[in-house]
């Protein structure tokens, strides 16, 4: 099993436990597990603390390009971050589709 497949399986498991995952919720969970403040994480991501707060609360949608940059900055799976960003955008638009990405 590849790392990307394990990450997607873990995401599906988490969603069954706690409801739909968003990129903002994922970033917040990672930040809290790293025991970092929003100020510290925002600096790592190259954004303001206020912007990070809005992302974590689901008030701001993250572009695919930025999601990929965030994944790299945090040392996490680009495919999971991009998948969550695309899903967030579909959900925001009310498009009833589920996104599953794989590396080409």
UniProtKB/TrEMBL annotation:
Gene3D superfamilies, per the entry: lambda repressor-like DNA-binding domains
Q: Which CDD domains match?
A: HTH_XRE
Q: Which InterPro entries does this chain map to?
A: Cro/C1-type_HTH (IPR001387), Lambda_DNA-bd_dom_sf (IPR010982)
Q: Which PROSITE patterns match?
A: HTH_CROC1 (PS50943)
Q: Which residues belong to any copy of the HTH cro/C1-type domain?
A: 27-81
GO MF annotation, one? DNA binding
Q: What is this protein called?
A: HTH cro/C1-type domain-containing protein
Q: Which organism is it from?
A: Bdellovibrio bacteriovorus
Lineage of the species this protein comes from = Bacteria, Pseudomonadati, Bdellovibrionota, Bdellovibrionia, Bdellovibrionales
């Amino acid at each position: 099993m590849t790392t990307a497949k394990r990450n997607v399986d873990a995401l599906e498991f988490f969603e069954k436990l706690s409801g739909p995952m968003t990129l903002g919720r994922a970033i917040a969970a990672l930040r809290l597990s790293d025991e970092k403040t929003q100020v510290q994480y925002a600096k790592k991501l190259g954004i303001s603390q206020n912007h990070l707060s809005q992302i974590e609360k689901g008030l701001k949608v993250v572009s695919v390009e930025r999601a990929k940059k965030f994944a790299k900055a945090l040392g996490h799976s680009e495919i999971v971050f991009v998948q969550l960003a695309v899903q967030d955008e579909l959900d925001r638009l009310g498009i009833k589709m589920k996104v599953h990405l794989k590396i080409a």
